[in-house]
Amino acid sequence: MNESGAQLQGAAPAGETETVLLRELVSLLRRNRTQNREEWARRITQAQLLTAMSQEEVFAEATTVYDNYVEALETGTLEALDAYARDLSERIIPRGVETHEVIGIVLLLRDVLARSLFAKYQTDFALLNRILDAYEPAANRIANTVAVGFVQERERIIREQQEAIRELSTPVLQVRERLLILPIIGAIDPQRARQLTEQLLSAIRTNRAKVVVIGITGVAAIDNNVANHLVQTVEASRLLGATVIVTGLSPRIAQILVTIGVDLTKMNTVGDLQGGIEEAERLLAYKVVPGGTASAPA
Fold first, then answer.
1. Hey, how many other C-beta atoms are within 10 angstroms of the C-beta on 190?
2. In the 8-state DSSP scheme, what is residue 217?
3. What is the pLDDT of residue 89?
4. Partners of 214 in the β-ladder
5. Of 101 and 137, the one with more pLDDT
6. Is there a contact between 295 and 289 (Cβ–Cβ < 8 Å)?
7. Beta strands 287-289; 293-295: pairing state
8. CB atoms closer than 10 angstroms to residue 140
9. Which of 10, 106, 135, 170 shows the smallest number of beta carbons within 10 Å?
């Protein structure tokens, strides 16, 4: 949370005059609640913001945000508004609502409320100025809290989605008892290589695996760092008691492994995934029976 609990007026306590002005401001905004909400929702539609939501949804959310906004002005704390803004962000981000839309609607609300103040106090400029002096710092704080909260929530969701994609891109599959397969497709960067190792070692321990077949047919190229990581993964698996069979080595990747000094005679390599599975079954003493299935070792 960025500003929750912070006093709207800043570090210094609000003076009595400012407190009275804010109280009057809150009273005015509550009296004008209906027309301000309707005007805000109309401006949101006119500006083509929150287009992923229906007009009924926009008005319902506008009502809740408006009430939380006024409460923040009244109490001087942003906790309720910040919590609602994050909840709203979590619901609307998957629907495609962008950051500029959220910032846009907050600025529109600020404008709608400011216009209502002009309409009320336009005949008394001195009082209008004092009201605006009390209102604007609070409004800026609120706008900043909502915008930053949305951006942070969006970044959190993006990180979770990226993590989910990475997990899906490195599936560790148990095809038989004590036998795992890890087919790798696409580019491998250092981050993905680390995740691959962590997932594989965890799966070896969980499944008490004895043989792992790593298929890299779908990997076009790797650099020296990732090649080293692959070798370390094989060694770490061996320490956990699992034999690793690497399948689908391309000439380019084989050349890199030789260049960085990997002794390929110590690495079990097989031409393709099917050959790797057959070799794994041999190591596990599975017997192939008619019909293409394998029976468990006696």
1. 12
2. E
3. 84
4. 182, 246
5. 101
6. yes
7. antiparallel
8. 12
9. 10
